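Assess this today:

___
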Amino acid sequence: MPSGVCNLLRRLNWRSLLIIAVIVGLTASALAVKHIDLGFAGAQFQRGSDEILGMQLGLDLAGGSHLVFEPVSKDLEPTDDQMDGLVRIIRDRVDSLGVAEPTIQRLGDTRLLVQLPGVEDVERAKRLIGQTASLGIVERVCTAPGCAVFSDTSVMTGEDLSRSFATQDTVTSEPIVAFELFSNAARRFAEVSQRIFETNTTPTPDLLVFQLDGTDLVATQVVSPILSGNGQIRGNFSTNEARDLAIQIESGRLPVDIEVVTERVVAASLGGKSLEDSLIAGGIGLALVFFFMAAYYRGAGVVAAFALVIYTLLMLAVFKLVPVTLTLAGVAAFILSLGMAVDANVLIFERMKEELRLGRTVQFALQIGFNRAWPSIRDGNISTLIIAAVLFFFGNRTANSSVTGFAVALFVGVLISMFSAIFVSRNLLTLLTVTKLGRFPRLFTPESLPKRTGGAGGSS
């Protein structure tokens, strides 16, 4: 084997090529199956859906209901804990609808976004979600061992509680939930707690139960009568469990009336047609980019087109594995990013073209092209990332899921395009220059080149 080829082979980063091969294999495998269910060391990793490629589709593609809620009262702004509690309550209620992959999240400080794919009965969803959380304190009289048989008597509601909060026992440091009663309710509660406490010596001790929307939050024995209006709930809680329980009780105690400020229903047929049109547009866009790059930049363009295939696989795999809910706006950003993904390659190839025009070897032109194009690639992509971050911020603050979806897809696309151009394209081009094709510079530039003379290679 000629010594020059041996030197080029040594320049190849085989580890990088192996990484590219592994990435292609993993991404193709992730997209080949709709449902991923892996278990390791007791941890479960589950991704996928019944949609195309197992992607999680937004309701503008899958069809369903889009609702945005905010508190009715504009004078008293709810606290973060109350809003977090409201999210948990709504999530529990949505689960009863049997909705697959619902989106329930805060938008800004006081708004809630609820997206229910597949649910087109928006009135039912509004009735279920919009009901004010209801906290009840119940005296549970047990008539069988283990309280297998019991009868409940409501003794108080959330309106009788002044506040509840997570804290720690001063002696054992055990996480507990403390609560305080209004003065007019403290006396009634003292009588109830005394009555429950006296049953502790019987075979079937009664329980004090806190319920939210009719569901038991915690059922506990009364270890001592609560005479002062201040009580504690113990239950072998972790710190997070105690905080979550306090939030649920707090949000149930303070009725946070919410109203719908935005509602939209997308028919499943319309969502399917949008997805079909988007896939056709994406396929045409991808084909046109392939054709342009291969026709104009020749061998280098073919490598860029192959790198773009890897880019597309990576984008779809990231969307599926993170997961990112793919919306129609996100598809638009993805299609747009197909063109942006080759921007870095164009800059690199133009730099290569200048070096080849001077009579440099393909290997030398490749090295200089990447080194000189990197500052422009870096600055251009950072600017786009900043724009995507600003779009995400305003989309999140204004409850505009379309803007948010576009920003997320654009942000992910820019990051992956940088990896694709700098890592994938560079290593594949280096591999191509090692072959016999590397001896023909005209395969890497659209311009005619001067004939080489004996020592004009300029290749160090």
User: Anything to note?
Assistant: The chain has three domains: 3-53+267-444, 64-132+257-265, 135-253. The domain at 135-253 is CATH 3.30.1360.200 (Gyrase A; domain 2).
